[in-house]
Design brief:
The complex is a heterodimer of chains A (437) and B (236).
Chain A: H1 2-15, H2 17-45, E1 56-60, H3 84-93, E2 98-110, E3 118-125, H4 129-132, E4 137-140, H5 145-150, E5 154-157, H6 159-166, E6 175-178, E7 181-189, E8 212-215, H7 216-221, H8 241-245, E9 253-257, H9 261-280, E10 291-293, H10 295-301, H11 307-337, H12 339-347, H13 352-388, H14 400-426, H15 430-435
Parallel strand pairs in A: 3-8, 5-7
Antiparallel strand pairs in A: 1-9, 1-10, 2-3, 2-6, 2-9, 4-7, 5-8, 6-7
Chain B: E1 2-12, E2 17-28, E3 33-37, H1 44-51, E4 59-64, E5 67-68, H2 74-84, E6 85-88, H3 100-111, H4 115-128, H5 144-157, E7 162-166, H6 174-189, E8 193-197, H7 201-204, E9 209-214, E10 217-221, H8 225-228
Parallel strand pairs in B: 3-8, 3-9, 6-7, 7-8
Antiparallel strand pairs in B: 1-2, 1-4, 4-5, 9-10
Helix pairs in contact in B: 3-4, 3-5, 4-5, 5-6
The chains are: A alpha+beta (437), B alpha/beta (236).
């Protein structure tokens, strides 16, 4: 009967095009608003590496001041970054299947051939960065242990940077000048846009990954300046970058890959021991608070999805509810206006359930059409957000799951709007209406 | 076939109580063609609605085809309407959005028949009422007589055992009325039990039996003319 009900729905909708368009428009408006906020919320709250959530751990230790916590609102939370010396010591000694110490810097790329130099953001990281975070390569690979140890001048380019510098071709083996030094290209990434940028939430939750990646050791060897947040609590004389390396300032990120609960336990014990040893040297004045966060916990800890986003989402759903309530009224008058036809069907043998389903299919069809309209409005809304906040363009991209969700939500909204009118019409007593024919 | 005993029906509003039927008794045998006459407001249509399970009686017992249908639920009554009863209404009651073919199709859809069988039955019914060539016309494109013939086709397409007709010629001219009555007589000859409500004594005379209703009760049961062979009461 579904095909039959769909045909009846089409005939019915065609009969009163103005009301039909009004209903579709009302739901579409609600769906458009909901799709816009839901897309942003969805992109914000998605764990971009969910399949490795349980094995990846952000490593934190509390080296902060004895007088005040790192986070005044949440005094139990350790700082989100580490000092250079802690990052290096833990990366070198802690028992982990893989571990990556890293930070951000910026360099000047010199493309040569008369092209002007330009500024690039770079990530200095140990080699496990690529396999730990499932970073896809278009050409080449990351660097090896020797490059990590010796600080070899090798570089991995992002897809965009490779396009900009080498026209997108396989540039492995080519030489790139950065800050006046030559680096050999050993890898080019395929498209990789983790959103949020989970591996470094201290420097823009939704920033794009860096333009290029260099061995971590180069940062110290060449005294590369930090490009991300540097947070300090101690009064120290920082005359230059060398002082920063030896300071209590935090500016490094550290992640470990721990594949079993036993590995987590072992790592945690090692970390606690490390902090205890450091305490003997006069550091770590606060109570020991060394935590390992899964990616999900890390996203929550950083409040990647802000309260404002949740409120906005609720407001958009409330708006959709208002639209649906308006459609309830329209449907009620429309269904009761055509009660005669339902009475005839009831007289000729249709059960209440059949009349109910027939009308639900009709409102479902209204919902589906509204879903398409809502998607168009949602796309416009997202485009407007892109224009307003250019740097958040990855948060405003409709993906297949959101398209399907918007249509499903619209059908659900239509069906919800139609439940009461359909229930009313299926309870029509045929005799009363047939008499008036 | 149809057996009503002491049926009563009261319509109540805040101000008034109307006894549409009171102690209404009637039996109709299978294959009969019964005409129900009576003045406006006498209870003819209420009787027809109760007989066709479109309304429930307030009191009494109604057996249809041997089954006590008085206490049946809404959907069970709909099922019996669909499987056993054909309706021809005074106002045609066609669905304006649907063409002739689809109007006739309505009761067959709810019976769950296969598409091929539905098509065969619809074609046969439209052939019988002479509208096969107009199957894709909308009701608004047909004359009153043609619309009533569509309603008859819809009523008989399901091959009901029991046909209820409420003033089926009320909106038609005399020539068209005669054609419709000829058609009903033919349907009855093929075995369908018919109850016809009419104001028109001329039409009533073509039934096997006339029942006069007054103030919600049967006041006169005229003999089954065709069986007794009385002059002026022959079945067409």
């Amino acid at each position: 009967m579904s095909g039959y009900y769909l045909r009846l729905a089409w005939l019915s909708l065609k009969r009163t095009p103005a009301i039909t368009l009004l209903m579709i428009g009302a739901i579409a408006l609600g769906i458009g608003a909901t799709t816009t906020t839901l897309t942003v919320y969805h992109r914000m709250s998605t764990n971009p590496i969910a399949h490795r959530n349980d094995v990846l751990r952000a490593v934190t230790i509390d080296n902060w001041s004895a007088d005040r916590p790192f986070d005044e609102e949440h005094p139990d939370r350790p700082p989100t970054e580490l000092t250079y010396r802690d990052a290096v010591a833990i990366a070198a000694g802690a028992p982990a299947a893989r571990i990556v110490a890293m930070r951000k810097t910026s360099l000047t790329a010199e493309p040569g051939a008369g092209r002007p130099p330009f500024l690039v953001e770079a990530r200095l990281a140990t080699r496990d960065f690529f396999p730990m975070f499932d970073v896809p390569f278009a050409y080449g690979t990351g660097w090896d242990a020797r490059a990590d140890r010796d600080g070899e001048p090798v570089v991995v380019l992002s897809k965009e940077t490779n396009g900009k510098l080498f026209g997108g071709e396989n540039s492995v083996g080519r030489v790139l000048r950065l800050d006046g030094r030559e680096y050999r290209v050993i890898g080019v990434l395929a498209d990789w846009q983790p959103t949020p940028k989970f591996y470094d939430l201290n420097n823009g939750d939704y920033d794009t990954p860096e333009d290029l990646f260099l061995p971590f050791a180069l940062g110290a060897a060449l005294e590369m300046q930090p490009a991300g947040n540097v947070n300090c609590w101690k009064t120290e004389t920082l005359a230059g970058i060398r002082d920063l390396f030896g300071s209590e300032c935090i500016w490094h990120q550290l992640w470990a890959e721990l594949r079993t609960p036993a590995e987590v336990e072992r790592f945690q014990a090692w970390l606690d021991g490390y902090v205890a040893e450091q305490r003997k040297l006069g550091r770590f004045a606060r109570k020991s608070n060394n935590r390992l966060y899964t990616v999900d916990e890390w996203l929550t800890r950083h409040e990647v999805v802000g309260r404002d986003s949740r409120v906005l989402l609720l407001v958009s759903f409330a708006f959709l509810a208002v639209c649906v309530l308006n459609v309830v009224g329209l449907l009620l008058s429309r269904f009761l206006g055509a009660a005669g036809a339902s009475a005839i069907r009831r007289a000729l043998g249709a059960s209440r359930g059949e009349i109910f389903r027939q009308h639900l299919v009709e409102v479902g069809a209204v919902g589906a059409l509204a879903g398409l309209g809502g998607l168009a409005l949602g796309a416009l809304g997202l485009r407007a957000l892109q224009q307003l906040y250019g740097s958040y363009d990855r948060l405003t991209q409709l993906d297949l799951s959101m398209i399907l969700a918007a249509i499903a939500l619209a059908v659900l909204a239509g069906v919800l709007a139609g439940l009461y009118p359909a229930w009313r019409i299926c309870r029509v007593q045929p005799a009363g209406y047939l008499k008036t024919q | 076939m149809l057996d009503m005993q002491h049926i009563s029906k009261v319509y109540r509003t805040d101000l008034v109580e109307t006894h549409a039927l009171r102690d209404f008794n009637l039996g109709v045998a299978e294959g009969e063609f019964v005409a129900v006459t009576g003045p406006s407001g006498s209870g003819k249509t209420t009787f027809l609605n109760i007989a066709g399970l479109l309304e429930s009686a307030d009191g009494g017992q109604y057996r249809l085809d041997g089954e006590d249908v008085g206490a049946l639920g809404d959907d069970a009554r709909a099922r019996i309407r669909n499987q056993k009863i054909g309706f021809i209404f005074q106002g045609f009651n066609l669905i304006p959005d649907l063409d002739v073919f689809d109007n006739v199709d309505v009761p067959l859809r709810y019976r769950g028949l296969a598409a091929r069988e539905r098509r065969a039955r619809i074609d046969r019914a439209l052939e019988l009422v002479g509208l096969a060539a107009r199957s894709r016309h909308l009701p608004s494109q047909l004359s009153g007589g043609q619309q009533q013939r569509v309603a008859i086709a819809r009523a008989i397409a399901g091959e009901p055992r029991f046909l209820l007709a409420d003033e089926p010629t009320g909106n038609l001219d005399s020539l068209m009325a005669r054609q419709i009555m000829d058609l009903l007589a033919e349907i009855n000859r093929q075995g369908t039990t018919i109850i016809l409500v009419t104001h028109d004594p001329e039409l009533a005379r073509r039934a096997h039996r006339n029942i006069h209703v007054m103030d919600g009760a049967v006041t006169d049961l005229k003999p089954y003319a065709a069986r007794t062979g009385q002059a002026g009461a022959a079945v067409a």
